[in-house]
Protein backbone atom coordinates (compact mmCIF):
# COMPACT_ATOMS: atom_id res chain seq x y z
CA UNK A 1 0.00 0.00 0.00
CA UNK A 2 1.40 3.39 -1.01
CA UNK A 3 0.70 5.95 1.69
CA UNK A 4 0.29 9.69 1.23
CA UNK A 5 -0.92 12.27 3.68
CA UNK A 6 -1.13 15.71 5.19
CA UNK A 7 0.68 17.10 8.23
CA UNK A 8 -0.46 20.17 10.12
CA UNK A 9 -2.32 21.12 13.28
CA UNK A 10 -5.25 21.17 13.63
CA UNK A 11 -6.55 19.40 10.53
CA UNK A 12 -10.31 19.74 10.98
CA UNK A 13 -10.43 21.99 7.89
CA UNK A 14 -8.45 19.66 5.61
CA UNK A 15 -9.41 19.57 1.93
CA UNK A 16 -6.72 17.13 0.81
CA UNK A 17 -7.97 13.84 2.27
CA UNK A 18 -11.36 14.10 0.57
CA UNK A 19 -9.79 15.27 -2.68
CA UNK A 20 -7.40 12.33 -2.94
CA UNK A 21 -9.98 9.74 -1.81
CA UNK A 22 -12.21 10.95 -4.65
CA UNK A 23 -9.29 11.04 -7.10
CA UNK A 24 -8.24 7.47 -6.29
CA UNK A 25 -11.81 6.24 -6.76
CA UNK A 26 -12.61 8.23 -9.90
CA UNK A 27 -9.33 7.43 -11.67
CA UNK A 28 -9.26 3.78 -10.49
CA UNK A 29 -5.92 4.25 -8.71
CA UNK A 30 -5.43 1.10 -6.63
CA UNK A 31 -3.12 0.43 -3.69
CA UNK A 32 -3.00 4.05 -2.49
CA UNK A 33 -4.28 5.74 0.63
CA UNK A 34 -4.21 9.36 1.84
CA UNK A 35 -4.41 10.07 5.59
CA UNK A 36 -4.33 13.09 7.86
CA UNK A 37 -1.50 13.29 10.39
CA UNK A 38 -2.39 15.96 12.92
CA UNK A 39 0.84 16.52 14.84
CA UNK A 40 0.70 19.08 17.68
CA UNK A 41 4.49 19.57 17.56
CA UNK A 42 6.78 19.56 14.50
CA UNK A 43 9.28 17.43 16.44
CA UNK A 44 6.85 14.53 15.96
CA UNK A 45 7.51 14.71 12.22
CA UNK A 46 10.86 12.96 12.73
CA UNK A 47 9.17 9.75 13.91
CA UNK A 48 6.35 9.80 11.39
CA UNK A 49 8.11 8.02 8.50
CA UNK A 50 9.55 5.46 10.94
CA UNK A 51 6.00 4.64 12.08
CA UNK A 52 4.76 4.76 8.46
CA UNK A 53 7.48 3.13 6.29
CA UNK A 54 5.12 3.07 3.27
CA UNK A 55 4.91 6.87 3.12
CA UNK A 56 5.60 8.14 -0.41
CA UNK A 57 4.66 11.77 0.01
CA UNK A 58 3.15 14.38 2.28
CA UNK A 59 1.43 17.70 1.92
CA UNK A 60 2.20 20.31 4.58
CA UNK A 61 -0.22 22.90 5.92
CA UNK A 62 -0.45 25.47 8.74
CA UNK A 63 1.60 25.88 10.89
CA UNK A 64 4.51 23.78 9.54
CA UNK A 65 5.30 25.07 6.02
CA UNK A 66 8.47 26.75 7.30
CA UNK A 67 9.14 24.71 10.45
CA UNK A 68 9.45 21.42 8.52
CA UNK A 69 12.43 22.58 6.42
CA UNK A 70 15.22 21.60 8.89
CA UNK A 71 13.91 18.01 8.84
CA UNK A 72 14.34 17.64 5.06
CA UNK A 73 17.37 16.37 3.11
CA UNK A 74 16.91 18.33 -0.12
CA UNK A 75 14.94 21.38 -1.29
CA UNK A 76 13.70 22.42 -4.71
CA UNK A 77 15.05 25.67 -6.16
CA UNK A 78 11.69 27.37 -5.52
CA UNK A 79 11.72 26.32 -1.85
CA UNK A 80 15.27 27.67 -1.44
CA UNK A 81 13.98 31.08 -2.54
CA UNK A 82 10.56 30.97 -0.87
CA UNK A 83 11.50 29.38 2.45
CA UNK A 84 8.25 27.39 2.66
CA UNK A 85 7.32 23.79 1.82
CA UNK A 86 3.87 22.33 1.17
CA UNK A 87 4.87 19.06 -0.52
CA UNK A 88 7.42 16.41 0.52
CA UNK A 89 8.55 13.47 -1.60
CA UNK A 90 10.11 10.42 0.09
CA UNK A 91 12.38 8.41 -2.21
CA UNK A 92 15.18 6.00 -1.30
CA UNK A 93 15.29 7.45 2.20
CA UNK A 94 15.68 11.02 0.92
CA UNK A 95 13.09 13.62 1.93
CA UNK A 96 12.78 16.43 -0.65
CA UNK A 97 10.71 19.58 -0.10
CA UNK A 98 8.74 21.30 -2.87
CA UNK A 99 6.27 24.15 -3.08
CA UNK A 100 3.24 23.46 -5.28
CA UNK A 101 1.32 26.45 -3.86
CA UNK A 102 3.27 28.55 -6.38
CA UNK A 103 1.88 26.54 -9.30
CA UNK A 104 -1.62 26.39 -7.86
CA UNK A 105 -1.83 30.10 -7.09
CA UNK A 106 -0.19 31.32 -10.30
CA UNK A 107 -2.30 29.16 -12.61
CA UNK A 108 -5.55 30.13 -10.90
CA UNK A 109 -4.77 33.86 -10.86
CA UNK A 110 -3.57 34.28 -14.46
CA UNK A 111 -6.97 33.90 -16.21
CA UNK A 112 -8.42 36.70 -14.06
CA UNK A 113 -5.78 39.32 -14.79
CA UNK A 114 -6.72 42.49 -16.69
CA UNK A 115 -4.21 44.96 -18.21
CA UNK A 116 -4.64 47.33 -15.23
CA UNK A 117 -3.77 44.59 -12.71
CA UNK A 118 -0.11 45.59 -12.38
CA UNK A 119 0.35 45.80 -8.59
CA UNK A 120 -0.75 43.64 -5.67
CA UNK A 121 -1.16 43.89 -1.92
CA UNK A 122 -0.30 40.64 -0.16
CA UNK A 123 -2.08 40.41 3.21
CA UNK A 124 -0.06 38.28 5.63
CA UNK A 125 3.53 37.08 5.99
CA UNK A 126 3.32 33.30 6.54
CA UNK A 127 4.39 30.37 4.38
CA UNK A 128 1.47 30.78 1.96
CA UNK A 129 2.32 34.48 1.54
CA UNK A 130 5.87 33.55 0.57
CA UNK A 131 4.60 31.26 -2.21
CA UNK A 132 2.25 34.02 -3.43
CA UNK A 133 5.11 36.54 -3.53
CA UNK A 134 7.29 34.14 -5.52
CA UNK A 135 4.48 33.57 -8.04
CA UNK A 136 3.87 37.32 -8.37
CA UNK A 137 7.57 37.85 -9.06
CA UNK A 138 7.41 35.20 -11.79
CA UNK A 139 4.43 37.04 -13.31
CA UNK A 140 6.27 40.38 -13.00
CA UNK A 141 3.55 41.85 -10.78
CA UNK A 142 4.90 44.38 -8.27
CA UNK A 143 3.62 43.95 -4.71
CA UNK A 144 3.62 45.28 -1.18
CA UNK A 145 3.26 43.00 1.85
CA UNK A 146 0.79 44.13 4.50
CA UNK A 147 1.26 43.02 8.11
CA UNK A 148 -0.10 43.94 11.53
CA UNK A 149 3.36 45.28 12.36
CA UNK A 150 5.15 47.46 9.82
CA UNK A 151 8.80 46.50 9.22
CA UNK A 152 11.61 47.03 6.73
CA UNK A 153 9.81 44.72 4.28
CA UNK A 154 6.14 45.26 5.16
CA UNK A 155 3.61 48.05 5.60
CA UNK A 156 1.00 48.15 8.34
CA UNK A 157 -2.74 47.87 7.74
CA UNK A 158 -3.06 51.42 9.10
CA UNK A 159 -0.97 52.67 6.12
CA UNK A 160 -3.58 51.60 3.57
CA UNK A 161 -4.99 54.92 2.35
CA UNK A 162 -7.01 55.79 -0.73
CA UNK A 163 -3.98 56.32 -2.99
CA UNK A 164 -2.43 52.92 -2.14
CA UNK A 165 -5.75 51.15 -2.56
CA UNK A 166 -6.32 52.74 -5.96
CA UNK A 167 -2.79 51.95 -7.13
CA UNK A 168 -2.74 48.32 -5.96
CA UNK A 169 -5.68 46.74 -7.74
CA UNK A 170 -4.98 43.09 -6.79
CA UNK A 171 -5.52 42.25 -3.11
CA UNK A 172 -4.59 38.74 -1.92
CA UNK A 173 -5.54 37.44 1.52
CA UNK A 174 -3.03 34.78 2.64
CA UNK A 175 -4.15 34.88 6.30
CA UNK A 176 -6.67 32.44 7.83
CA UNK A 177 -9.00 35.35 8.69
CA UNK A 178 -12.58 34.45 7.77
CA UNK A 179 -11.95 30.69 7.62
CA UNK A 180 -14.69 28.45 9.03
CA UNK A 181 -15.78 28.49 11.85
CA UNK A 182 -14.72 32.14 12.43
CA UNK A 183 -16.53 33.37 9.34
CA UNK A 184 -17.31 36.83 10.72
CA UNK A 185 -13.63 37.90 10.56
CA UNK A 186 -11.86 39.62 7.68
CA UNK A 187 -8.64 41.59 7.08
CA UNK A 188 -8.90 45.18 8.25
CA UNK A 189 -8.49 47.06 5.00
CA UNK A 190 -10.43 50.18 3.88
CA UNK A 191 -13.02 48.40 1.74
CA UNK A 192 -14.64 51.72 0.79
CA UNK A 193 -11.74 52.35 -1.65
CA UNK A 194 -12.29 49.10 -3.55
CA UNK A 195 -13.83 49.47 -7.02
CA UNK A 196 -14.69 47.45 -10.12
CA UNK A 197 -11.00 47.75 -11.11
CA UNK A 198 -10.01 45.55 -8.18
CA UNK A 199 -9.46 41.80 -8.03
CA UNK A 200 -9.74 40.22 -4.58
CA UNK A 201 -8.26 36.74 -4.15
CA UNK A 202 -8.66 34.77 -0.92
CA UNK A 203 -6.59 31.65 -0.24
CA UNK A 204 -9.36 30.57 2.16
CA UNK A 205 -11.90 28.24 0.50
CA UNK A 206 -14.24 27.44 3.40
CA UNK A 207 -16.64 29.24 3.31
CA UNK A 208 -16.73 29.67 -0.49
CA UNK A 209 -17.39 33.39 -0.03
CA UNK A 210 -15.49 34.85 2.90
CA UNK A 211 -16.40 38.21 4.40
CA UNK A 212 -13.30 39.63 2.64
CA UNK A 213 -14.64 38.51 -0.76
CA UNK A 214 -18.21 39.55 0.07
CA UNK A 215 -17.13 43.08 0.97
CA UNK A 216 -15.10 43.28 -2.24
CA UNK A 217 -17.99 42.04 -4.40
CA UNK A 218 -20.28 44.64 -2.82
CA UNK A 219 -17.88 47.30 -4.15
CA UNK A 220 -17.96 45.77 -7.65
CA UNK A 221 -14.62 43.93 -7.49
CA UNK A 222 -13.89 40.60 -9.18
CA UNK A 223 -13.36 37.88 -6.57
CA UNK A 224 -11.94 34.36 -6.32
CA UNK A 225 -11.49 31.93 -3.45
CA UNK A 226 -8.71 29.40 -2.93
CA UNK A 227 -10.55 26.26 -4.05
CA UNK A 228 -9.09 26.01 -7.55
CA UNK A 229 -5.61 26.80 -6.19
CA UNK A 230 -5.97 23.83 -3.81
CA UNK A 231 -6.97 21.48 -6.63
CA UNK A 232 -4.08 22.64 -8.82
CA UNK A 233 -1.50 22.37 -6.03
CA UNK A 234 -2.80 18.89 -5.08
CA UNK A 235 -2.49 17.69 -8.68
CA UNK A 236 1.03 19.17 -8.85
CA UNK A 237 1.90 17.27 -5.64
CA UNK A 238 0.62 14.03 -7.15
CA UNK A 239 2.83 14.59 -10.22
CA UNK A 240 5.90 15.11 -7.98
CA UNK A 241 5.18 11.97 -5.95
CA UNK A 242 4.80 9.88 -9.10
CA UNK A 243 7.46 11.27 -11.40
Automatic annotation (TrEMBL):
One of its GO terms (cellular component) is cytosol. InterPro entries: Aminoacid_DH-like_N_sf (IPR046346), NAD(P)-bd_dom_sf (IPR036291), Shikimate_DH-bd_N (IPR013708), Shikimate_DH_fam (IPR022893). Keywords: Amino-acid biosynthesis, Aromatic amino acid biosynthesis, Oxidoreductase. Pathway: Metabolic intermediate biosynthesis; chorismate biosynthesis; chorismate from D-erythrose 4-phosphate and phosphoenolpyruvate: step 4/7. It comes from the Bacteria. Coiled coil: none annotated. CDD domains: NAD_bind_Shikimate_DH. Transmembrane segments: none annotated. The keyword tRNA-binding does not apply. The keyword Ribonucleoprotein does not apply. One of its GO terms (molecular function) is shikimate 3-dehydrogenase (NADP+) activity. It holds the Pfam family Shikimate_dh_N. GO terms for biological process: aromatic amino acid family biosynthetic process; chorismate biosynthetic process; shikimate metabolic process. This is Shikimate dehydrogenase. It comes from Chitinophaga solisilvae. The lineage of its organism: Bacteria, Pseudomonadati, Bacteroidota, Chitinophagia, Chitinophagales.
Amino acid sequence: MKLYGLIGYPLSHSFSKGFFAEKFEKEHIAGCRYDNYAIPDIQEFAGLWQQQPDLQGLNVTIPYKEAVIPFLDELSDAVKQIGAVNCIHFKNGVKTGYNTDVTGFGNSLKPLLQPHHQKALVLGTGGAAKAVMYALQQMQIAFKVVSRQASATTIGYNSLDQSIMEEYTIIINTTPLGMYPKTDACPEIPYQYISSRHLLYDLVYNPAETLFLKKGAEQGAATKNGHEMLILQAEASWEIWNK
